[in-house]
């Protein structure tokens, strides 16, 4: 019996579901479908409703540990753990694929992929294209080539980064406890459940403990760190017990037994705030038709509307969009470097491949990455 009361989930169209090692590798004895099946049924039900889901899944190291004799235990040298991750990735992907008729796509990310703006945009474009194709992306850190440490911090925070990356509406974090409590309920019998909260306060962070299980690498503290990161991007976070079939069924009906951490501002507002305040790398002067399309139709900025490129900037930089008189119209993330925009300015989008030999899409600044001023 859960101490949490049932509540409605926030409306959502796209979500990230984070599943930790503790749910996939009970007692470090390899991968088990026991809890993954119910989570997969929730994902399938959501997709049937026309929604999109990206899974961020741990478990590769735990899977690899069972494949070789005398496998190194937790705390082993990094090269040994990376070898286990390489061995276990195939098993992890096979586990998820068995539950779905649609293709499951493996996406491995590193810290550099998310720190470098060009690679960040490439990763986002890949994930969004996979969703457009109807595939199910399963994301994990590329443990095999990570150089700083095995994890990007942990997969809770990776899931929050991915939620911002794909403009998700909600981040689902499957835990092995029912939700957030005022203290660890396994140690404190009078710990009180936290039903819902706005953002992540220092007091809320004080409720969290450390690592929870042998297989996992993070406890409730990392989940709250992830929730804070998601909240800053305008994404709600839901923490629930991923071991309970009844909780899985309720989620498919937009009902929650667990903790909801509501973002302190909406997703569009968070993104607009960031774009308005980010450093500007250069500017694009556009014609009157482009200005009207941006202001009245919510369109993307296409190459045909660009008349002049001001300054030097790289793909992924924030640029200012100006009208013929030099007035600021908008700001946005540019999909092409300044030298490339100069070559395609005034040309039709279908000519980009011919002019550059490659393309990152038909828009110079996509409407999802643009804010009007």
From TrEMBL:
Pathway: Amino-acid biosynthesis; L-proline biosynthesis; L-glutamate 5-semialdehyde from L-glutamate: step 1/2
EC number: 2.7.2.11
Catalytic activity line of the entry: L-glutamate + ATP = L-glutamyl 5-phosphate + ADP
Positions contributing to ATP binding: 18, 175-176, 217-223
Domain PUA: 282-365
Binding-site residues, substrate: 58, 143, 155
Keywords in alphabetical order: Amino-acid biosynthesis, ATP-binding, Cytoplasm, Kinase, Nucleotide-binding, Proline biosynthesis, Transferase
InterPro entries reported in the protein's UniProt record: AceGlu_kinase-like_sf, Asp/Glu/Uridylate_kinase, G5K_ProB, Glu/AcGlu_kinase, Glu_5kinase, Glu_5kinase/COase_Synthase, Glutamate_5-kinase_CS, PUA
Highest taxon, organism lineage: Bacteria
Enzyme category, top tier: transferase
GO terms assigned for molecular function: glutamate 5-kinase activity
Subcellular location: Cytoplasm
Family that this chain belongs to: Belongs to the glutamate 5-kinase family.
Function comment: Catalyzes the transfer of a phosphate group to glutamate to form L-glutamate 5-phosphate.
Name of the molecule in the record: Glutamate 5-kinase
Organism: Coralloluteibacterium thermophilum
Gene name of the encoded protein: proB
């Amino acid at each position: 019996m859960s101490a949490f009361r049932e509540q409605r989930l926030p409306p959502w169209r796209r979500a990230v579901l984070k599943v930790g090692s503790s749910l996939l590798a009970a007692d470090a004895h390899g991968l088990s479908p026991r809890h993954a099946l119910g989570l997969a049924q929730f994902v399938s039900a959501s997709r049937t409703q026309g929604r999109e889901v990206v899974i961020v899944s741990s478990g590769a190291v735990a899977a690899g540990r069972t494949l070789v004799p005398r496998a190194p235990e937790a705390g082993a040298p990094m090269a040994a753990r990376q070898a286990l991750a390489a061995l276990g990735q195939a098993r992890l992907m096979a586990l998820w694929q068995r539950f779905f008729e649609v293709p499951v796509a493996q996406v491995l990310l590193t810290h550099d992929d998310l720190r470098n703006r060009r690679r960040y945009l490439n990763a986002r474009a890949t994930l969004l294209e996979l969703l457009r194709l109807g595939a199910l992306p399963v994301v994990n850190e590329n443990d095999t080539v990570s150089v700083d440490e095995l994890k990007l911090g942990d997969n809770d925070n990776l899931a929050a980064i991915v939620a911002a990356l794909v403009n998700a509406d909600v981040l689902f974090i499957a835990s092995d406890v029912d939700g957030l409590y005022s203290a660890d309920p396994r140690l404190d019998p009078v710990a009180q459940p936290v039903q819902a909260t706005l953002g992540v306060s220092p007091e809320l962070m004080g409720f969290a403990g450390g690592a929870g299980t042998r297989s996992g690498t993070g406890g409730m503290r990392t989940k709250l760190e992830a929730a804070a990161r998601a909240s800053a991007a305008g994404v709600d976070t839901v923490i629930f017990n991923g071991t309970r079939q009844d909780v899985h069924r309720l989620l498919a009906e937009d009902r929650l037994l667990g903790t909801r951490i509501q973002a302190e501002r909406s997703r569009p507002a968070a993104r607009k705030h960031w774009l308005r305040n980010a450093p500007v790398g250069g500017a694009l002067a556009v014609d009157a038709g482009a200005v009207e399309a941006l202001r009245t139709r919510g369109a993307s900025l296409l190459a045909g509307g660009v008349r002049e490129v001001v300054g030097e900037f790289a793909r992924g930089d924030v640029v200012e969009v100006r009208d013929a008189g030099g007035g600021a119209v908008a700001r946005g993330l540019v999909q092409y470097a300044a030298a490339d925009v100069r070559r395609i300015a005034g040309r039709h989008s279908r000519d980009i491949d011919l002019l550059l030999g490659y393309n990152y899409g038909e828009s110079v600044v996509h409407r999802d990455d643009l804010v009007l001023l």
